[in-house]
Write a structure and sequence with these properties.
5-stranded mixed sheet; 21% strand; single chain; 4-stranded antiparallel sheet; globular; alpha+beta; 9 helices
């Protein structure tokens, strides 16, 4: 297996590209003023590019890898925290979430599936989902029991590791064992079935990198977290019929 080397470096490069065209349209003095004010108020945060927002007089600034966006006045003295919605005929559209989804899709699409544990259909693959998983959570096990049915319906499941207890937990060692195994698919299934699997943590396992990716680039709050190819997130378990409906299949 080719292991993840620099997933966050890839993510960072992608995040800098998203919205770079808008960056060129913002006056450099406005950019400097906003960045200076924000960094002075909270130097511990990481601020992204300054972009034009759909609201005249407000500028968008991503904070901490884009999981949060501020809408800031040109003088940097005021900002609005929260999602931006567009009022449309028949409802509203969450513009902030749409942008986050585009970013997530770019980040996930740049990762190598060789670094994941992938369960693929025997026939045509109609769609793929990324799943941040642990081995000890009940709904992770429930989702894994659905994998044969999902495969049968043409859905490929791409697992990434997310030990809920952190990198010093038994869950980390179990996940690392699966990723280090000669047959990772079989070992992950055995662990999710609560079978007694000897722990074997190799130094080159990608669990820590994937855990960091989930925390910082995707904002995973729990497991399982399903990420669609278009960047939409389902925070939790969905039965096969509902998941296929979300995928438009």
């Amino acid at each position: 297996m080719t292991l993840i080397k620099k997933p966050l470096a890839i993510a960072g490069a992608l995040l800098s590209l998203v919205g770079s065209a808008a960056m060129a349209e913002v006056d450099t003095n406005v950019v400097k003023t906003i960045k200076t004010r924000l960094e002075a108020s909270n130097p511990k945060a990481t601020y992204g590019e300054v972009r034009e927002s759909p609201i005249e007089g407000l500028y968008e600034v991503d904070v901490d890898d884009g999981n949060t966006t501020l809408f800031v006045s040109a003088d940097g003295n005021h900002f609005v925290y929260g999602d931006l919605y567009q009022v449309k005929a028949g409802g509203v559209a969450n513009l902030s979430e749409q942008r986050r989804a585009t970013r997530r899709a770019a980040v996930m699409g740049a990762l190598d599936t060789e670094d994941m544990i992938v369960f693929s259909p025997k026939g045509e693959t109609k769609a793929s989902v990324y799943v941040f998983t642990d081995v000890d959570c009940g709904y992770c096990r429930k989702l894994h029991q659905d994998v044969p049915e999902l495969n049968k319906r043409g859905i490929e499941v791409r697992y990434l590791a997310f030990p809920r207890g952190g990198l010093n937990s038994l869950g980390y060692r179990k996940l690392a064992t699966a990723w280090c195994a000669e047959d990772s698919n079989k070992t992950l299934t055995a662990l999710k079935n609560r079978e007694n699997v000897p722990l074997d943590v190799c130094k080159t396992n990608p669990v820590a990198a994937q855990y960091k990716l989930g925390n910082e680039a995707i904002d995973v709050r729990g497991t399982p977290t399903i990420v669609m190819e278009d960047g939409r997130v389902v925070p939790g378990y969905l039965p096969p019929d509902r998941l296929l409906k979300e995928l438009g299949i």
